[in-house]
User: Fold these one by one.
Assistant:
Number 1:
Amino acid sequence: MSHQIAVIEGDGIGQEVIPAAVEVLESLDLGLEFVAGDAGDAVEAETGEALPQETYDLAAESDATLFGAAGETAADVILPLREAVDSFVNIRPARAYPGVDAVRPETDLVFLRENTEGVYSGHEDDLSDDMSTLTRVVTTAASEKLAEFACEYVDGEGFSVVHKANVMRKTDGRFRDAVVRVADEHGVDTDEVLMDAFATRVCLDPTQFDTIVCPNLAGDVLSDLAAGLVGGLGLLPSANIGDDNALFEPVHGTAPDIAGEGVANPLATVLSAAMLLDHLSYSEESERVETAVETVLAEGPRTADLGGDANTEAVTQAVINEL
Amino acid sequence: MSHQIAVIEGDGIGQEVIPAAVEVLESLDLGLEFVAGDAGDAVEAETGEALPQETYDLAAESDATLFGAAGETAADVILPLREAVDSFVNIRPARAYPGVDAVRPETDLVFLRENTEGVYSGHEDDLSDDMSTLTRVVTTAASEKLAEFACEYVDGEGFSVVHKANVMRKTDGRFRDAVVRVADEHGVDTDEVLMDAFATRVCLDPTQFDTIVCPNLAGDVLSDLAAGLVGGLGLLPSANIGDDNALFEPVHGTAPDIAGEGVANPLATVLSAAMLLDHLSYSEESERVETAVETVLAEGPRTADLGGDANTEAVTQAVINEL
Ligand SMILES: CC(C)[C@H](C(=O)O)[C@@H](O)C(=O)O
Ligand SMILES: CC(C)[C@H](C(=O)O)[C@@H](O)C(=O)O
């Protein structure tokens, strides 16, 4: 069975790292079919829409989507795209690689971020000239769905539930209760950590944690914190998983300072492509790509962000040679 | 003019570090009048209320309040107390001290956290069996008030405005616009950073930032992140400032593992007392206390959390001897 992969480069280095990841995928000869879609600042400037309906539909209809990055329009592109693929969880591994400068080289975490609600539900109002409100939504259904996924994901291990239920008692209380209840039903161990305490503790000793299950904004901020601990966003992949559908993207942005020069680090996107392979049940190929990236990080050419002087193409070829 | 200081020890090591800080204050012979109030888990167990009305009133009527920590009832104690003193800003310095183990020894930050609204406004509802909502409130008035304070606080320097206005467009958009407008009016430079990007960047290089102005929950989480970078909560003071009134507290909690042993580190509370002195215009005394703490940290006895074996009393006396 051939899979259709939507490929949305977006802006800036998205246009360099996505082709690199596609090259890696193509070198595996899996007969994947790539279909390009447009989104981002440039598209908005041209058409008035950062995410044209046909790109939304393409993501919704494809088996998986690979997305690069968008500039000023990032939120207008990525939030609807996550919705297009009906994604209920955002998987964000944050792992330090040997030989790559990291504040905390022992970091090896995976965030499972709720991906549909919380403050992202989008209900905001200007109540008066002086006041705006945002309605933060938490449902038992979304919390349970995330928890079911988490229980399967950790495969016999436990996970940490990170929340702020001491202040957001009803909403994060509902989240926490639902997640812990589902975990209990599956015999999965959980420990609870308040999100502020988590921020302190993960800096002091990231090895205290493995898998972290949390609401949407907590996952956004705390996974970016973990990115800081592993040395930056340059190597962080992510996956947005839906029932029939998924979207994979590097955590980094468009890097306007280096865009167009062909020197962007493609590895976060290549690792996102590895997550895509795993999602489509090409588990063996997924592991081969990951191992190839590790080998290149340990021995191969490096882009400038990792202290090397190789360009995007050289690093991409090095990965392909290791496959 | 003599000042009345409300003294609320709370639970756990609050009962050890607050007396230590009071000893330091008394040694200065300023004629401060200390009045004790009760709050916390033990009070709740006894009376059914974590924060008795008379303690609330005491804080509201005193010139300043020194608070230790509360256990399970922390939110029920500290959130109303912040309201009792009409506090619109929570000042949280996070600074690494020479000789104290820190992930990022070059960290020297001050968070000015909005202290009245955001997700802390407390409007939560269970809309159905499946759904809860929380109404996040942002007003121009509170944002401007914080910004006015920030402009004075930075005394000619600039500050960073940290927010998530790309997602919370109306609420954090209102916050950002109000803060930037007030700063512009005062000729104060600002730069804007998204809160997730801030979490990454502060780990990679905390010297990029100095003073950070942000909404309530952002300040909670990001200042705790900074606490992780400076080696933990043990040395972090904080101030909740109102127009006529203020409350000072260490950022740490009740430390149940060591409570009752007389070995808690009193320095976060002593530094909070120094902030109290400054607030009451005893600036010279405030600086003397800070300098004494620095000297003790560099040369003097240390509690176990800093790798020493001195007890609370020995460290407190060492500070007093340096005054
Ligand atoms: C661009 C923005 C809307 C997005 C988010 O907040 O989810 C980004 O920060 C991310 O984490 O992918
Ligand atoms: C105890 C809790 C309500 C409080 C807060 O969230 O403000 C604490 O974390 C703090 O930062 O002082």
Number 2:
Amino acid sequence: MERIIMKKLINHPDNVLKEQLQGMQLAHADLINVHFDPYYITRKDAPVKGKVALISGGGSGHEPMHGGFVGKGMLDAACPGEIFTSPTPDQMYEAAKAVDGGAGVLNIVKNYTGDVMNFEMAADLARADGIKVQNIIIDDDVAVKDSLYTAGRRGVGTTVLVEKICGGAAEAGYDLEKLSALCRKVNQYGRSMGMALTSCITPANGSPSFEIGDDEMEIGIGIHGEPGIKREKMKSLDEITEEMTMGIIEDPAYTRKHKEWSFEKDEWIEVEQTDEPFQKGDSVIAFVNSMGGTPVSELYGVYNKMNEVCEKNGIKVVRNLIGPYITSLEMQGCSITLLKVDDEILKFWDAPALTPAFRR
Amino acid sequence: MERIIMKKLINHPDNVLKEQLQGMQLAHADLINVHFDPYYITRKDAPVKGKVALISGGGSGHEPMHGGFVGKGMLDAACPGEIFTSPTPDQMYEAAKAVDGGAGVLNIVKNYTGDVMNFEMAADLARADGIKVQNIIIDDDVAVKDSLYTAGRRGVGTTVLVEKICGGAAEAGYDLEKLSALCRKVNQYGRSMGMALTSCITPANGSPSFEIGDDEMEIGIGIHGEPGIKREKMKSLDEITEEMTMGIIEDPAYTRKHKEWSFEKDEWIEVEQTDEPFQKGDSVIAFVNSMGGTPVSELYGVYNKMNEVCEKNGIKVVRNLIGPYITSLEMQGCSITLLKVDDEILKFWDAPALTPAFRR
């Protein structure tokens, strides 16, 4: 094969995903099984009898999400697409068959057109085999509606929190209906915004996904480098953090329409949901995420200012998650997610988990 | 204050460390206490009566090391210097007084001239207060001897493994002498090599620490961007990984001389130790570390090839650690550490730990 020169630790771009998944299998053989044709990752003890199985998936390049969250207390399976490319329905269908323990499957789907469409097709295929399947769409990015790859809001940081919380509830015996309701609620309670300092290089392109000046940053960026709210001159940590945090806190009520499966009507129906804005007195989980290339030290700086802004606005941070969990390859930047909590959400956030990238 | 423009999530460079430590305190108030004058971080329940206290420290910019490893089963205290700058003796001295539970203190010191000198002074100060203190130097980087900031080998990845293993042993009741012996052994059994694809920006400088071409990489680099073995054209993942892994496996016996405290003679003495090269049949913990900016997906690619090279050479990988644990700010690149294990080392590697950055 020809030598491809780019500043990444890879061999030929065609083999990147396969080789990385081989490494993951070798490293975490005690927790997961990686399947290669098609690609999907299952927890070691799948299928777990009587437990609703949680599946997520999406383009690769956002690691550790989703494969790193497969294991006890989080996902039963993850379906990695090629980098920044939706996985295919056959991956999701094979995963569903592999992990269904008789109590059905909940697909957690980030709101990107390809992901939504393919998870629908996969649900139909699995249903034809007698597997109960529900799809819940995550769309928490307050920065933009109708972006490059999305109708409506994009699904970003809340997805990680959903996977932990619903994973805990599934482990505790929630049935598919109750788990779907919890998943919907967490999505409605969660809001995120991201920003980037640098671009990233996908192996297939070998050059930066977008250009950004040495003194510029992009506010409201998506996890594939999709344009955000604005491109502007670099600002201070305090200014950036305040802008993002206030963008989340002041985000108005949002009404979404998504297709969900109606078990009564035996068909896909359009479901409308409205999430209420944050209010003084809310308690939240605060998730400060690295886009990949930003070190955790800088995230602590963000967390420090974010906490101050929350306090000033009557929002109490009761739990946190800080680190690179939903990334865009080596992009520098960060995102903030605030998730309003109640007792049910906190209980399952605090529940044990044992996965390659998250342990409690 | 004047506005400083650089592509980092920071306010004024003078406040970076303070603000990040404030964020850390807020985020992990259940696990640690951050002290601000001078800076040091202690585990929440320090001092633990009857347990030897483990202290480490070094320049900041390598997060999560060391502050992220403070907590049950790892460090009792960490002393963060300014970025890429040794902490001062008074930080280490105050930390020793705060965490000594009557069984003495073991200082784990990476082999950089400033760190070694300051930890010696701190040990003398603590000893004058009646605290038993030993210093063990970590020097595991096989790439270069006598680098920019070091006489002899630099201390790198093995430090993380030492902190976990000795932390487990301290928790299990090892006295200072036994713990010092284990620490020495882990250092003798561990070897590392690093490489960089990009430079990094320290807030104090505001510009890249060193220049590196768009098609170049540096093999054998240090965690402060110190020059390595060679600057060369970008190679494939397989070539880079093979070169680093073989560099570690084929590294010959190394003889070090360090000062340690003799409790018999009541003075610092020079101790000579020789570590033996790896041999066919050795079992190892393999640690694939991101320098900060390299995403975990690429580390899995490195792990995959590294495992193959180890197998070919009769080295069996029995445990692993993969992620950004000892970093150089946002530098892209990775390091590999192989640590020969025996039953004692494995037992404490597998022991529980509860810290901001490492949980088991």
